[in-house]
Structures are given as structure tokens and as C-alpha cells.
Design goal:
The complex is a heterodimer of chains A (323) and B (502).
Chain A: H1 2-21, E1 30-34, H2 41-55, E2 63-67, H3 74-82, E3 89-94, H4 95-103, E4 115-123, E5 125-130, H5 138-147, E6 153-156, H6 162-174, E7 179-182, H7 186-194, E8 200-203, H8 205-213, E9 217-223, E10 249-255, H9 261-275, H10 278-286, E11 290-294, H11 296-316
Parallel strand pairs in A: 1-2, 1-3, 6-7, 6-8
Antiparallel strand pairs in A: 3-10, 4-10, 4-11, 5-8, 5-9
Chain B: H1 2-14, H2 17-35, H3 41-48, H4 57-74, H5 76-82, H6 91-102, H7 106-141, H8 144-156, H9 158-161, H10 166-180, E1 183-184, E2 191-192, H11 206-224, H12 245-250, H13 252-267, H14 273-287, H15 300-323, H16 329-340, H17 349-352, H18 354-375, H19 378-383, H20 390-409, H21 412-430, H22 436-458, H23 465-468, H24 470-501
Helix pairs in contact in B: 1-18, 2-4, 2-18, 3-4, 3-16, 4-7, 4-15, 4-16, 4-18, 5-6, 5-7, 6-7, 6-15, 7-13, 7-15, 7-18, 8-22, 8-24, 10-22, 11-20, 11-21, 13-14, 13-15, 14-15, 20-21
Classes of the chains: A alpha/beta (323), B mainly alpha (502).
Chain lengths: 323, 502
């Protein structure tokens, strides 16, 4: 039994280089692994990608979404690490895959242990207050925070989320201090602001749009390098006079470790082609994302820099880092 | 008048043959998904989302909503027949539902679950139609201190779920609270009780624990009884399989209670059907004249939570449709669906898309009727499951439990956890610890801790924030009252004994 298995394995390993020599093409359904359950942010993006791939006929095979929730991204990352050498598995990563190994010793697989493929999306954010709040500009809010240290409140996600990172950077550069209250769900964060229980929040532009249009919310500044198309009147952080680094919410694709160079090239080109399709452009525009395409080599550089910067920011915020 | 006109237009939309068809497809899929433990409405809707792209949005939202509320109907089936909660919202249904089945009343239990679901589901839609804007405003006035008070009230119900010993019930509740604290702390990103296991970083799934301590423990205890186990009695004849007039009378208050609690808790962005079902069960027990019989197979103990988890659906659509704020996993994916179809859910959604909103509301009335017609004939069919000899039934329960757990996360680790909690449940049964308080502690623990810490962060550490806000103060006082009720009983008994002796 075992000897037969090892024979098969041997045969497979002999054949593999041959098939790769002629240029890689996925031969069976490709698994796109996400770290959320159905309906989570990554899941929705992954399913949208699967639909586009079908519509634009970009692959000879189907792309299917595999949910590996749990461990704040660590379970999905470990799943990819176990698939070493598997040419038909990819993972859709977000910033969580970077942050979890930084703060949790249990999460043993970092993005560095996987094979970078491509960066796809940068998600900008805006800083919003309730429409009847006295702050007309971010400077007004900072001024108020200066007068009442620790009294004003911001709603957001966990303390490693981008919301808190933006707060940390602003606090550090202005010498102010306000409270940060974590809520697990995006709905609860918005409800806390609209109910007047907190004063400010960092929110995705698409989420804020309708609340602004209904006159319930006002945007003070945007967390992006340049102004978003749908917020032409709102200054970026830099334009508002706060020279802090812009921390993007990033999404991209990684593959299991130990896959041949041909595969990496195939996939980075595949995602470049995807990012040039009209369906992708429309999706990016509808969701007010930024096209953040980078190839494998640039992505590797990006996440080294990003990890170093995150570690610094988290340390400043008093979060214990383990790596 | 405006509402009447809207509703008439809505029925015009919902009664179009295509939309009627999608409504039926939705509620049928929902029923199936509800009956199968594990695979819940969020996963089903996410998987169907790509198919809805080429559909008319009205038909699509009608179908997806049908899956959402249809699943609540089916969820009680495995709870009642096998003590396997299909979803977190039907955990409470196990308490009296399964006991009814053991007494040969599986039919009436399944029947009342369908009827209560229908009544409360319809009331929930009425609420969504008539009072959505003011309720949404009320929901926004709820913040962390209020959530903490609400959950304290829920946890106080532990004294009502206690068996003979209050101390044992409190200990079980504490274990539940402890299990709830496993995972990464949201506020500090510190790992708690993960023992180096990355699978535990995101905590332990509620359904895994519930299936373990209810279903697995039940199977183990029954298998241990070595003597020839009797088949569970299932009476013959359709009439004996449906609730009697007396049953319906007993459930009068449960229908109202389930409808109102479910709708109100559902409308809170931090609420949810699990809390709603626990609260309505607790309230039902607290006011019942036969309080002491709860947990032994009382029909209103099935009607109240089953009603609450259905009317919760109407409530949960309130913040989603009036504010664009999703309160649960399922409403979050409905929101994603609306965005994918090119709508912008938010405060202006209803005024700008009246046909869609009213079409949905009207379809929910129709869908609830369909569900009742669909589910009542299933009752005799499902009741036959219990005619199976035990050597088939128990393996079937084990299989259903394991498939249910595995289909949620696809992780073998969760199956291991299921075994651990099955063993824990077995030991608790042997040592006469009630398992319901553990489940209650687990259901409320994480949210309660979070709400308390959020409150203290808001007030810079002053506990007074919990009692200085009126809604929170009222609910906390109620919680104290609930905790004191059994003491009054004890005091009274002690006083009577003293009188006799004196």
C-alpha cells in the first residue's frame, strides 16, 4: 500500500517538471481561499472576482471560493501553508493576515512564508462625524480633543484595525488624546455614531455615502493620497494640515509556498489582465476602492515595509507585538 | 392611508407570477436549510448571490429574504426531534421541545413551532410596515450601557433555568461565561485561553458547544442505559400529531410575548435572534402559572422562542432598510446583495425605491402563509423519524450533529471540540448540573463583557454610566428583581415553616 503510494508520488514528481516546462496553466478548478465566512468583506470580493473571471472568460477552468474562517486569518494562512507546492490554490489576503501574526504567537504563518502573487486593491477611508456635530473640520475636532483630553470618543474595530492606526498617528502628531471604543460589527460602529454615543469614526467611503446624502453624517477628511472622485470637496489628511502617513486597507493574492516561478508569472499576469477588464474597473469604482495592482516582486517589498510600519504603530499604541 | 396605498402596490409587485415563484423558491430553500443543522441562511444566500445577477431585483430580494425567514421555520425540527439545535436561534427550543418529543408529543411541538413562527413572523412584518422609523430611532438610542443591562437581564434568567440547585446553575453559567472569553480579546488583541491553538484565536462557536452538551450528551446518557430501550411513543393519526385547542390556548401569551420581544430585540443592531429567543423563553417562564414544569415539555416553552426568532427577522430588517445598518450576519449579506445589484441601502432607500420595499413587505406576508402550508403537512412526516429503532436513531443523531458542525467551518478541530463538549455535557448530566445555564452564559458572555468594557471606556471608568441612563437603569432593576424572585419564595417557605413550628 505504502510502496504503491510512494511509487505514484515518484511518478508524479517526475511528470511535474515536464508539464511546467511548457508554461503553466491551471488544469482543474482553482480554489480561492478567504479567511471570512460567507458574506464577509473578503468573501464578497472573492465571489465578485469569480463572477468576473467567468464573465470575461479569463481562465480555462472555474475559480471557486473556499471559506476557511477562524483564528483571525490564521486558519486560512495555515491552510495555504499546508498546500505547499499546490498550483491550483490561491489565497485572498487582507491586512488582517499581516496583523494577526504580529500580535498573536499562535498564528505561525506570516505572509512572508507564502508566495506573493499580486496586490489588487487599496481601500481608502474617510473620517466622519454626525451631521449635527460642532466640528466643521478635522482641525476643529483636534482642537476640541486638546481642550478635553480623553473626553471625545471614536468608534471602530479591534485595536489593531486601521481605524485605530489612523487615530494613533493623529494623536501622536498633534499631541492629543481621545478614547477609542471597539465594536465587533461595522453596523454597531455606525449606530454608535448616529446615536450620538461617540463623536467620530473612520469609515469606508461607500458606507458613508448614503448617510451623507441623507444628511445624517459629515465627512471631515479623507485617509488617502489624493482626493476620491466622489468626495471632491473633502481635503485629504495632508491637505487638512496633518502630515501623517496614509495607511491603506490592502487586499491582494498569495499562493502556497514552494510553487515554481512559471506559476507565479502566470498568476501575476492573470490578475493584471483581470484588473484591466471593464467589469473590474466598474467594481472598483462602485465600491470606491483604489486600483492598487502591484506584481509579485513589488508586493513582497510592500509587505515588508507595511509590516515594519505596523509594528512601530502598534508599539506606540501600547499593543504587545510578538514578532 | 399612505401605508395602505404602499401595501396595495406591494401586493401588486409580490403577486406577479415570477415574484410569487421566487418567493416560493426562497421559503422552500429556507425550510430545507433550516432543517439541516450547520449550513445557515448567510452561507446559503452568499452561495446563491451569483445566480441573482440576472434576476429582477424585486424577485431576487424576495427570494433571499424568503431563505432568511424560511430557515427560522425549519430550525426547530432537529431541536425537537433529536435535541440537535439547527441554528443558534433554536437552541432554547431544545429545552421543552425535545422533552415533548420524548413524551410522544413531537407532533404538537413541531406544529406549535410552525404556528408560533407564522403568528410572530406576521407580526414582525406588521411591525416592519407600521413602526419601522420610530423603532429605528429607538434602536439608535441603545448603546453599550443598554446592551449590558439587556444582557444582564438575560443572564439573570439563569435562576429560572436552574433545576434543584441554584448554586449548580450559577456554576454552569460561569463555565459558559468562561468559554465565551476564549479567543482574541477585541480591545487589546491579547489571546485568552487559546493554549497555543490558532483555531481558538477566534473563539469557540456557540453551535458547537450547544450540539455537544445537548445532543451528544443525550445520546451518551441513553446508550448507557443498557436495558432494552423503548421506542419513543409516536401516536397514530393526523389529529394526534397537531396541537390541540387547549395547546393553542396555553400558548396565547407566548404568541404575543414571542412576537414583541423578537421584533424589539431584532431591531437592535447588537441584538440577534439567540438573545431574543432566550429572553422570550425567560419571560414566558417568569409569568407562567406552571413555572416549575418548564423544561419538562411545556408547549409554550416551544412557542415563545420559536415565535421570537421569527419575529426577529422583521425587526432585523428595520435598521437594514431604514438606516442601511446591518445587525447580523444574514442582514450583512443582504446589504452586500443590495449593493451588488446597484442599490444604495441607507436612510433614503425606502423613499427612493418604494416598490421594492413594499413588494418585499407584501411578499413576506405571502411567504409566511406559504411556510405554514408547507410546514404543517411535514409535521406527521418528521414525527415518523422517532419510530426508528434506537440502533438507527442514535447513529443518525450523531451523524447529523457532526455534519452540522463540520459544515459551519469545515474544520476537524471543531469536530474535536464537539466531542470535548459532548463529554462535558455527559459529565454534567451525571453530576446533575443543568446544561441550559451554560449555554445561556455562553450566548450572552462575549456580548456582555464587550458592552461593559465599552461602557466603562465611554465613562472613563465610572460605573455610574450603567444606572444614570434611564433604559439601562430600568432593565438592570428588572434583572435584580428576577434574581430576587426565588429568594422571596424561599423566605416565604421558611416563614411558613417557622409559623408551623412556632
Amino acid at each position: 500500500m505504502t510502496s504503491r503510494m510512494s511509487l505514484i508520488a515518484l511518478a508524479a514528481s517526475l511528470c511535474a517538471p515536464l508539464s511546467f516546462a511548457q508554461g503553466f496553466k491551471p488544469a482543474r478548478t482553482v480554489d480561492l481561499v478567504v479567511h471570512t465566512g460567507p458574506g464577509g468583506g473578503s468573501d464578497v470580493l472573492a465571489r465578485a472576482i469569480a463572477i468576473m473571471v467567468e464573465k470575461e472568460k479569463l481562465l480555462p477552468v472555474r475559480l471557486q471560493v473556499i471559506n476557511r474562517p477562524g483564528g483571525n486569518g490564521a486558519v486560512a494562512a495555515a491552510h495555504l501553508a499546508e498546500k505547499r507546492g499546490d498550483p491550483n490554490t490561491l489565497g485572498l489576503f487582507t491586512g488582517v493576515w499581516l496583523q494577526t501574526p504580529l500580535v498573536s504567537a499562535e498564528a505561525k504563518v506570516t505572509l512572508r512564508d507564502l508566495t506573493p502573487i499580486a496586490r489588487l486593491v487599496l481601500e481608502p477611508a474617510v473620517i466622519a462625524v454626525k451631521a449635527d456635530a460642532p466640528y466643521k473640520t478635522l482641525a476643529d475636532f483636534i482642537e476640541a480633543a486638546k481642550k478635553n483630553p480623553g473626553q471625545l470618543k471614536q468608534s471602530g474595530g479591534s485595536n489593531t484595525s486601521r481605524d485605530n492606526v489612523v487615530r494613533q498617528l493623529l494623536q501622536k502628531s498633534t499631541g492629543t488624546r481621545w478614547a477609542y471604543i471597539s465594536f465587533p460589527g461595522g453596523g454597531e460602529r455606525i449606530a454608535a455614531l448616529l446615536g450620538g454615543h461617540v463623536n467620530i469614526m473612520v469609515i469606508e467611503p461607500e458606507e458613508a455615502g448614503e448617510h451623507i446624502r441623507a444628511g445624517n453624517m459629515r465627512v471631515l477628511a479623507q485617509v488617502s493620497e489624493k482626493r476620491l472622485a466622489k468626495f471632491p470637496q473633502v481635503p485629504t489628511l495632508k491637505e487638512a494640515g496633518f502630515d501623517v502617513p496614509v495607511v491603506p486597507q490592502v487586499r491582494g493574492v498569495v499562493a502556497p509556498p514552494g510553487i515554481p516561478k512559471e506559476n507565479v508569472e502566470f498568476w501575476q499576469d492573470f490578475f493584471l489582465r483581470l484588473s484591466r477588464t471593464p467589469s473590474w474597473r466598474k467594481y472598483i469604482e462602485d465600491n470606491q476602492f483604489e486600483d492598487g495592482y502591484q506584481n509579485a516582486a513589488d508586493l513582497a517589498k510592500f509587505y515588508d515595509e507595511f509590516t515594519d510600519r505596523m509594528r512601530e504603530i502598534l508599539k506606540d499604541a501600547g499593543v504587545k507585538t510578538v514578532r | 392611508m399612505e401605508i395602505l396605498a404602499g401595501l396595495l402596490n406591494g401586493f401588486a409587485v409580490a403577486l406577479e407570477p415570477a415574484n410569487l415563484f421566487w418567493c416560493f423558491v426562497g421559503v422552500l430553500l429556507g425550510t430545507v436549510v433550516g432543517i439541516l443543522p450547520g449550513l445557515g441562511p448567510p452561507a446559503t444566500i452568499a452561495m446563491l448571490l451569483p445566480l441573482t445577477f440576472n434576476m429582477n431585483p424585486a424577485g431576487a430580494i424576495i427570494m433571499l429574504a424568503g431563505i432568511y425567514y424560511g430557515a427560522k421555520y425549519g430550525g426547530s425540527t432537529t431541536s425537537i426531534l433529536m435535541n440537535v439545535p439547527g441554528e443558534s436561534a433554536s437552541v432554547v427550543t431544545c429545552l421543552d421541545g425535545y422533552q415533548m418529543a420524548r413524551k410522544g408529543r413531537a407532533g404538537p411541538a413541531l406544529g406549535i413551532a410552525a404556528i408560533a413562527s407564522f403568528v410572530a413572523g406576521t407580526v414582525g412584518v406588521l411591525g416592519l410596515m407600521l413602526v419601522a422609523p420610530p423603532i429605528a430611532k429607538f434602536a439608535l438610542s441603545f448603546s453599550s450601557p443598554e446592551y449590558f443591562a439587556l444582557m444582564s437581564l438575560g443572564l439573570a434568567l439563569v435562576v429560572l433555568l436552574a433545576g434543584r440547585s441554584i448554586v449548580k446553575a450559577l456554576l454552569a453559567a460561569l463555565v459558559g461565561l468562561w468559554i465565551a472569553s476564549v479567543g482574541t480579546d477585541l480591545f487589546s488583541s491579547t489571546s485568552r485561553f487559546t493554549f497555543g491553538q490558532m483555531e481558538l484565536l477566534s473563539g469557540i462557536d456557540f453551535v458547537v458547544v450547544a450540539i455537544g452538551v445537548f445532543a451528544l450528551a443525550e445520546v451518551m446518557v441513553n446508550m448507557e442505559a443498557r436495558e432494552e430501550t423503548q421506542l419513543l411513543p409516536v401516536p397514530k393519526g393526523l389529529r394526534n400529531l397537531l396541537p390541540t385547542l387547549q395547546d393553542l390556548k396555553d400558548c396565547r401569551f407566548a404568541f404575543v410575548n414571542g412576537s414583541v420581544i423578537g421584533f424589539l430585540v431584532g431591531a437592535l443592531p447588537g441584538g440577534g435572534s439567540t438573545i431574543a429567543s432566550f429572553l422570550s423563553y425567560g419571560l414566558e417562564k417568569a409569568v407562567s402559572p406552571r413555572r416549575e414544569q418548564f423544561g419538562t415539555g411545556v408547549i409554550e416553552g416551544v412557542a415563545a422562542p420559536e415565535g421570537a426568532n421569527n419575529s426577529e427577522t422583521g425587526g432585523a430588517l428595520v435598521p437594514l432598510l431604514t438606516l442601511g445598518i446591518p445587525g447580523s450576519g444574514t442582514t450583512a449579506i443582504l446589504l452586500a446583495a443590495l449593493v451588488l445589484w446597484g442599490f444604495k441601502p441607507g436612510p433614503l432607500f425606502i423613499p427612493e425605491h418604494p416598490a421594492l420595499f413594499w413588494g418585499l413587505v407584501a411578499s413576506m406576508y405571502i411567504g409566511n402563509v406559504m411556510l405554514l402550508i408547507l410546514n404543517l403537512p411535514l409535521v406527521p412526516l418528521f414525527a415518523q423519524v422517532l419510530r426508528m429503532p434506537v440502533y438507527l436513531l442514535y447513529p443518525l443523531i450523531l451523524g447529523v450533529s457532526m455534519v452540522g458542525v463540520y459544515s459551519v467551518s469545515g474544520s476537524l478541530f471543531d469536530l474535536l471540540l464537539l466531542m470535548v463538549f459532548g463529554l462535558l455535557g455527559y459529565l454534567m448530566r451525571k453530576l446533575d448540573y443543568p446544561s441550559a445555564p451554560l449555554i445561556l452564559g455562553l450566548a450572552l458572555g462575549a456580548g456582555m463583557e464587550r458592552a461593559l468594557r465599552q461602557s466603562l471606556m465611554m465613562s472613563e471608568g465610572k460605573l455610574s454610566i450603567l444606572v444614570s441612563r434611564p433604559i439601562s437603569a430600568v432593565m438592570l432593576s428588572l434583572a435584580v428583581l428576577v434574581l430576587l424572585i426565588p429568594m422571596f419564595g424561599k423566605l416565604n417557605a421558611w416563614r411558613l415553616r417557622a409559623l408551623e413550628q412556632g
